Amino acid sequence: MTIGRPKADLVLSDQERSQLQTFARSRSLPAALSSRARIILSSADGEPNNAIAQRMQLTNATVGKWRSRFIERRLAGLYDDVRPGAPRTIDDERVAQLIRTTLHTKPSDGSTHWSVRSVAAETGISKTSVQRYFRTFGLQPHRSEGFKLFNDPFFIEKLRDVVGLYLSPPDNALVICVDEKSQCQALERTQPMLPMGFGYVEGITHDYKRHGTTTLFAALNVIDGTVLARCKPRHRHQEFLSFLREIDKAVPMGLDIHCIIHNYATHNHPKIRAWLAIRPRWHMHFIPTYSSWLNQVERFFALITDKAIRRGSFSNVKQLVRNIDHFVTAYNATCQPFRWTATADAILEKLHRLCSRITGTGH
Predict the structure, then answer these.
(1) Could you give the 3-state DSSP secondary structure of residue 90?
(2) pTM
(3) Using CA atoms, how far apart are residues 285 and 295, in angstroms rounded to an integer?
(4) What pLDDT shows up at residue 6?
(5) Cβ neighbour number for residue 297 with a 10 Å cutoff
(6) Candidates 1.20.1070, 3.30.420, 1.25.40, 1.10.10; correct CATH number of 14-78?
(7) Which residue of 199, 262, 279, 288 has the fewest CB atoms within a 10 Å radius of its CB?
(8) pLDDT for residue 2
């Protein structure tokens, strides 16, 4: 009779068994880890190594290895050991030098910012390594973002006023965003457009003839998204007052009108103020200086510029106006209101983070 080497006892605690069962059932863990958990569970239930190996299509040595590893190290023994790799060729000091160079210096050739190639040449680190460290630390010297700090002394008060109208419109009232898009040019392309096809985009010549301009006045209904728009030859206070009269006629007399608008000189003309003074249902809400993004009608202007004006070719101003009117009519037939979700506190917190970055006190 041949007597083999006696196996060490494998006894699981309740916590270990629960953890191993979780490993064995998991579909998100590596398959090797789940397989090792099943080996240990079967062995703890008394199943021989050769039977486990045959059932799981493994070798006896593999089953014995993980059984021994678990007995020696418990759950930690089921994980693969960290394998040594090639030694680093770029030490921490050189990485720190790369970061300091990118963040705190400018190229000596007069360039305004670093590129991967110029940083690589400056630091002696390969281009692929520079790219890797740029990705790791989130460095993007080739990009920039525009910003504008507000100098309106009543910025916070105006911000809360306008955002409050967006998030909680008053009852029995209409909230509208009003502005004008001046200098809409009727440009006629000097050559025919090249149609879009498979593998290439539409081609538009950069040469054009100017045939005059028009000013687009628009009032956006914040509640349902509809737009009242009129094209006028100029953007003086006379044209603006005429547009206000059109709005006043279009809005039912039983509704107050809360008008969100820029603090533009034309909008504060004495004749405009006199007209508003005898119409108590009109309430003007001026957005802060340099805060055009607060006026939702600017989003409509971006849409109509992109879809109806920029890529068009117009032989005269009347043709441009007809195209704008056609777009507005089609837009109102299917429009949806723009969803405003940012609170005043959230906007102020974002502004605080921007100021912290500028002063160097934030991250």
Answers:
(1) coil
(2) 0.66
(3) 11
(4) 59
(5) 26
(6) 1.10.10
(7) 199
(8) 44
